[in-house]
Every structure is written in structure tokens, then in C-alpha cells.
Amino acid sequence: QVQLVQSGAEVKKPGASVKVSCKAPGYTFTDYYMHWVRQAPGQGLEWMGWINPNSGDTKYAQKFQGRVTMTRDTSINTSYMDLSSLRSDDTAVYYCAREMGIIEVAAYDAFDIWGQGTMVTVSS
Amino acid sequence: QSVLTQPPSVSGAPGQRVTISCTGSSSNIGAGYHVHWYQQLPGTAPKLLIYGNNNRPSGVPDRFSGSKSGTSASLAITGLQAEDEADYYCQSYDSSLSGRVFGTGTKVTVL
């Protein structure tokens, strides 16, 4: 079954970093872009960036450049999103999401598979 | 601040038809980039509802349909059901931002 399984909730202090994992069983991990999206409490969806699991290439939203790092480990079919210098307004649910078209022909396709979400709370 | 604007809320009685608009600009929807729609039930992850402007993934009822014209897109729900009560988001690509963008989101209430 195609699914994305994320790591558990985290509580961090301001200034710290958090690393969220997203494991992808059930399909060829390196064939599809992986995106990260976050949602603050009561707010809308916000795109953070993507990683090409095959090459390791990344693209980040301007808002997060310098603070976010997306990596992957192809041996365990897992993507990671690391966010540093955390602030209270980084409190949110963080989702990984697979882009539906295979990398070779992907053209700004939709996100067809989503992880269950990881709650990150930033509080002193 | 999102570059795709949706109405904050729409409502309708069971069986009625409702539409949700998604207004963009010449750097996203108007540039020809596809629009996708997601449904988010309370406390759950978003679910793909419409892709490529007007295509439904397997398992999505044909009560849901999408369209696009100019710098805007729309999601229509016909035969509204209680289970359709959720938040809905449009999404596209923006060439000025060089990234994906989501709409502001619309809460659908079934009266």
C-alpha cells in the first residue's frame, strides 16, 4: 500500500532545530519528488520546498531559505526536513507529500499521497 | 500571504450545488499552470480531490468537478452531502515565486 509515515510529535525551545522524517514504503522512492508543507494552528497550507530523492537536488520556498534543509536516505526510503532557529510561529503540523508524476515527466503535478502529519510545538 | 484567493466560507443545504473560486494572476493560473484541489477533513491530512484542473483521482465521487478560465479556477460540489463538510484548498505553481502556492482555503458548511 502506498503511504507516507512520519515521525512523532516534537516539542522544541526557541532557537533549537527540529528534524522530521518521512518514510515511503510501497513505491519506488527515487521515482517521485517529495514536498514538505506546513499548517499552523487554524491556518492554511504553506509550501516549504521539495527534494528529488534520486539526485538529492532541492528547492526551497524563499521564506525558508537559510533555515530549512531537506535530505534523504535512499537505503531506507526516507526523506527528512530539518528546520533551524525555531520561533514560536513555526508551531505547526508539518506534512510530507508525494508529487504524483514520476520525476522524468513531472510538470508541477498534484500531491497525491500525504503523510499523517507531525506536530511541532515551539515553546519556552 | 497567499497569492491564490478563495472565499473564507461557503454553505449550502444537502443536495444543493456549491462552488468555490480560486483567483490567481498571470504568474500562476493565468500562465497556464495546472490547478489542483484538496479536501481536508478536521484533524486529518489533506486529500487530493482534483488534479490537472478537472481530473478526479480514483475513488473521488463525480459530484466533485473542477474548471479553469483565465486567471481563476473553480471547484463545484453537486448534491452536497454532510460528509462534504471540510476545508478545501486550491494549489498551483507560481513562476514569480518559483514555487508551489496554495489558496487561502474555504470552509464548506452543510446546513
Keywords:
heterodimer; A: 124 residues; mainly beta; 4-stranded antiparallel sheet; globular; B: 111 residues; 6-stranded mixed sheet; 3-stranded antiparallel sheet; 9 strands; 0% helix; 44% strand
How is this structure best summarized?
Chain A is an all-beta fold and 124 residues long. Helix content of chain A is 0%, strand content 45%. Chain B has strands at 9-12, 18-23, 36-40, 47-50, 64-69, 72-77, 86-94, 99-102, 106-110.
Detailed description of the structure:
The complex is a heterodimer of chains A (124) and B (111). Chain A is an all-beta fold and 124 residues long. Chain A has strands at 5-6, 10-12, 18-23, 34-39, 45-51, 58-60, 68-73, 78-83, 92-99, 111-114, 118-122. In chain A, a hairpin with a 5-residue loop joins strand 4 (34-39) and strand 5 (45-51). Chain A is globular and about 45 Å long. Chain B is mainly β and 111 residues long. Chain B is built from no helices and nine strands. In chain B, strands 1, 3, 4, 7, 8 and 9 form a six-stranded mixed sheet that branches. In chain B, strand 7 and strand 8 form a beta hairpin. The model of chain B has no long low-confidence stretch (mean pLDDT 97). Chain A binds chain B through residues 35, 37, 44-47, 49, 59, 61-62, 95, 97, 100, 107-112, 114-117, and chain B through 2, 33-34, 36, 38, 40, 45-48, 51-52, 57, 89, 91-93, 97-105.
- Mean pLDDT across residues of chain B: 97
Mean pLDDT of chain A: 96
Topology, number of strands of chain B: 9
Which outline of chain B best applies? globular
Q: Distance N terminus to C terminus of chain A?
A: 40 Å
Written as H for each helix and E for each strand, in order along the chain, the element string of chain A is EEEEEEEEEEE
The total count of helices of chain B amounts to 0
Helix count of chain A, per DSSP?
Answer: 0
Oligomer classification? heterodimer
| Chain pair with largest interface | A-B, 23 and 26 residues
Rg of chain B computed from alpha carbons, rounded to a whole number of angstroms: 13 Å
Report helical residue fraction of chain B: under 10%
Rough outline of chain A: globular
Number of strands of chain A: 11
Instruction: Enumerate the spans of chain B where pLDDT stays under 50 for 5 or more consecutive residues.
Output: none
